[in-house]
């Protein structure tokens, strides 16, 4: 039997989560039901609820979207059906048709796609699909919400009579209107409508001359509204027929309501089902808004929340476009209690609340924002002591209230309990409060309860180190800037950085030293040791990260070098082949050259032919016989290689051609006019000299040690004569 205290739900701000879920509902009944969501007391119903929400979320990501479940509440209609001799109006009947159609659509859809939504289909299998209500109402009520003329023979007859009388009334009124208009008894407006009847607008002075019933007059008294005598008789008959018609309509509606009355339990089921579907849909939409999933629910006592987000914080930051830091927390039999320490504003309380809220949400049938590899188990009881616990109503101090809470914890805590305590042991003398807190923690430990506490007390950190199944954890802080990293590190206690934070906030150094002297030297050393260890851990993490990055770079470079090496090896092989081939050709060339020289000297043709034939035979013996097919393949390969080479050469030629074209297109700047005394140099030279004389496009340039006669066009200006 699962039981989670209301105080825990309040501490974890569960009501805010419910309000956010309620906002995703599309019906009034759904919104109200979402606000009543509470942790399930039975494991079986909880697992079904989780599966239903999980399946609904999956419908957002496939082509088979679950049909719309929106409906108008039929609570009043159900109440009327429960009372004998009552009848439903046409708009109420249309609501019943609408809700029946909606339910039928969803039920048929779930049956068709049972493979996709097995749990939803199983959950709805007890609800009956019926078209009786729809058919009966559609036979009597039209799409505008009026009773059809053929709803009964009597109604048909009455409405025909009404239509005939209305025709007679209009005809007789038109005759009277024309008559009195010609006599000039009527005002300019001629006619009006009073009490839903057409009346003549008669000038007040002629009211006695017009026969009929006076129905009223204008505000000024200049006009009197009269219903002509000719239409009066027809109007009375019409009133009688309309009364009979309304009586017949009521009779028909009563008959139809009596037909529907036996379907009351089914209609109650319909409304209840659609309300539940609205809540399931809202849970699914809420899950989608934060990428929540259904983690693995394990039978073993084990919780592993990887990359867990606090739902409220995540959604708030998402709106503000700010980053939310996830936490990874593991609780199991060999590490069932975590003691989180570290400075304030580092995220200890948020981490504690994240675990508690996610567990409560999960046990209320809601999906949670964690990594898909996460695991969760179910607890029979979740106890919490978080936030400001001063009770004004009961005249209790914070510490008294906390002691009362601890007493409740001691009564209820067992191996199936998850306890969450923020700032454990505070509110009293640090030494005494710490000692009492240590005793309580030992009791919870002995009872094999799971839990997370946050504290600044050194004795609780030491206890976590001493106990086998209890571990320390700390919220990481940057040792230089003293800014929180909002990251939980398991396995080591955290320093409160009390003096460091005080120094950062401008507290004089001499006062900090005095404070250090006032407390036990051992405690300062212990806190300093923890701070040092934390700094070392932070450094190690940074070093580890940089090593990983370097390793990645080295691997990438090694792969690159290997690829280059492979390319070079291939080139070397091809060059070696080319070299061997060329060497063989040189050797053959030399042999032929020797033979030709020998022939040149002795002119022995036969000897030359014999030597050449011998040389050819030796070379042919080295060759392998190649079939016609292989020759074709080799030829095709060589052709392909030739084409590729030509293609590359063409690309290079094209690029060079474009470059030359661009160079030509560039505007040629006019060469400066050179004068005697200007410092110049040759276009392709470095030595600088001065012009002594210019004559017939030739310049005599003085380089100091020597002079030279050069064409002016070959010279570049370095500096003009000042």
The top level CATH class name of the largest domain: Alpha Beta
By CATH, the architecture of the largest domain is named: 3-Layer(aba) Sandwich
Provide the domain count. Answer: 4
Strand arrangement across the biggest beta sheet: 10-11-12-8-13-14
Number of helices: 21
End-to-end distance: 106 Å
- Share of helix, binned: 40-55%
The proportion of strand residues reads 5-15%
- The total count of strands amounts to 19
The largest β sheet comes out as: 6 strands, mixed
> Kindly state the mean pLDDT as a whole number?
83
- At the fourth CATH level, what is the homologous superfamily of the largest domain? P-loop containing nucleotide triphosphate hydrolases
Low-pLDDT sequence parts: 390-395
User: What is the approximate shape?
Assistant: extended
- What is the fold named in CATH at topology level of the largest domain? Rossmann fold
What radius of gyration results from the CA coordinates? 50 Å
Question: What is the structural class?
Answer: alpha/beta
């Amino acid at each position: 039997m699962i039981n989670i205290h209301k105080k825990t739900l309040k501490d974890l701000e569960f009501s805010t989560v419910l309000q956010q879920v309620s906002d995703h509902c599309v019906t009034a009944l759904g919104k109200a039901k979402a606000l009543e969501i509470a942790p399930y007391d039975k494991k079986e119903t909880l697992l079904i609820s989780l599966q239903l929400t999980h399946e609904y979320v999956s419908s957002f990501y496939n082509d088979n979207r679950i049909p719309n479940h929106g409906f108008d509440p039929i609570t009043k209609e159900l109440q009327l059906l429960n009372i004998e001799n009552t009848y439903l109006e046409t708009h109420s009947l249309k609501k019943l048709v609408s809700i029946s159609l909606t339910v039928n659509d969803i039920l048929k859809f779930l049956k068709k796609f049972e493979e996709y939504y097995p749990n939803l289909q199983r959950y709805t299998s007890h609800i009956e699909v019926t078209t009786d209500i729809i058919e009966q109402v559609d036979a009597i009520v039209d799409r505008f919400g009026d009773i059809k003329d053929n709803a009964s023979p009597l109604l048909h007859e009455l409405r025909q009579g009404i239509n005939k009388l209305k025709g007679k009334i209009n005809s007789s009124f038109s005759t009277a209107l024309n008559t009195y208009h010609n006599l000039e008894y009527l005002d300019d407006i001629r006619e009006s409508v009073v009490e839903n009847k057409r009346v003549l607008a008669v000038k007040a002075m002629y009211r006695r001359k017009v026969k009929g019933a006076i129905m009223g007059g204008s505000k000024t008294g200049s006009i009197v509204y009269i219903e002509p005598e000719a239409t009066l008789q027809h109007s009375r008959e019409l009133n009688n027929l309309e009364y009979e018609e309304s009586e017949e309509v009521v009779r028909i509606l009563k008959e139809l309501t009596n037909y529907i009355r036996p379907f009351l339990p089914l209609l109650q089921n319909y409304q209840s089902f659609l309300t539940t579907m609205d809540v399931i849909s809202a849970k699914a939409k809420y899950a989608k808004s934060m990428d929540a999933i259904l983690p693995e629910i394990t039978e073993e006592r084990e919780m592993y929340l990887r990359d867990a987000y606090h739902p409220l914080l995540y959604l708030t930051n998402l709106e503000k476009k700010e980053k939310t830091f996830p936490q990874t927390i593991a609780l199991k039999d060999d590490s069932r209690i975590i003691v989180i320490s570290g400075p304030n504003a580092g995220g200890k309380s948020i981490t504690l609340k994240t675990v508690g809220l996610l567990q409560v949400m999960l046990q209320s049938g809601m999906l949670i924002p964690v990594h898909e590899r996460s695991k969760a188990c179910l607890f029979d009881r979740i106890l919490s002591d978080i936030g400001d616990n001063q009770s004004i109503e009961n005249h209790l101090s914070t510490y008294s209230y906390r002691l009362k809470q601890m007493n409740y914890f001691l009564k209820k805590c067992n191996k199936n309990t998850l306890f969450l305590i923020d700032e454990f042991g505070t509110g009293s003398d640090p030494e005494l409060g710490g000692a009492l807190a240590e005793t309580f923690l030992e009791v919870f430990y002995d009872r094999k309860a799971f839990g997370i506490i946050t504290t600044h007390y050194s004795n609780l950190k030491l206890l976590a180190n001493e106990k086998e199944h209890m571990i320390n954890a700390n919220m990481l802080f940057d040792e230089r800037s003293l800014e929180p990293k909002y990251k939980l590190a398991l396995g080591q206690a955290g320093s409160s950085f009390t003096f460091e934070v005080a120094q950062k906030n401008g507290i004089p150094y001499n006062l900090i030293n005095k404070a250090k002297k006032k407390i036990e030297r051992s405690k300062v050393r212990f806190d300093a040791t923890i701070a040092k260890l934390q700094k070392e851990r932070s450094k190690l993490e940074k070093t580890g990260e940089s090593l990983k990055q370097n390793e990645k770079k080295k691997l990438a470079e090694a792969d690159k070098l290997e690829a280059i090496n492979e390319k070079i090896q291939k080139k070397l092989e091809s060059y070696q082949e080319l070299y061997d081939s060329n060497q063989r050709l040189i050797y053959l060339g030399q042999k032929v050259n020797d033979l030709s020289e020998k022939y040149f000297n002795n002119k022995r043709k036969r000897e030359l032919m014999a030597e050449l034939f011998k040389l050819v035979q030796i070379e042919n013996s080295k060759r392998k016989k190649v079939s016609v097919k292989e020759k074709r393949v080799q030829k095709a390969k060589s052709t392909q290689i030739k084409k590729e080479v030509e293609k590359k050469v063409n690309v290079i030629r094209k690029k060079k051609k474009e470059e030359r074209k661009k160079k030509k297109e560039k505007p040629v700047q006019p060469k400066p006019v050179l004068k005697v005394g200007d410092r110049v140099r040759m276009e392709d030279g470095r030595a600088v000299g001065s012009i002594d004389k210019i004559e017939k496009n030739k310049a005599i340039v003085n380089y100091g040690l020597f002079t030279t006669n050069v064409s002016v066009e070959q010279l570049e200006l370095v500096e003009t004569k000042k």
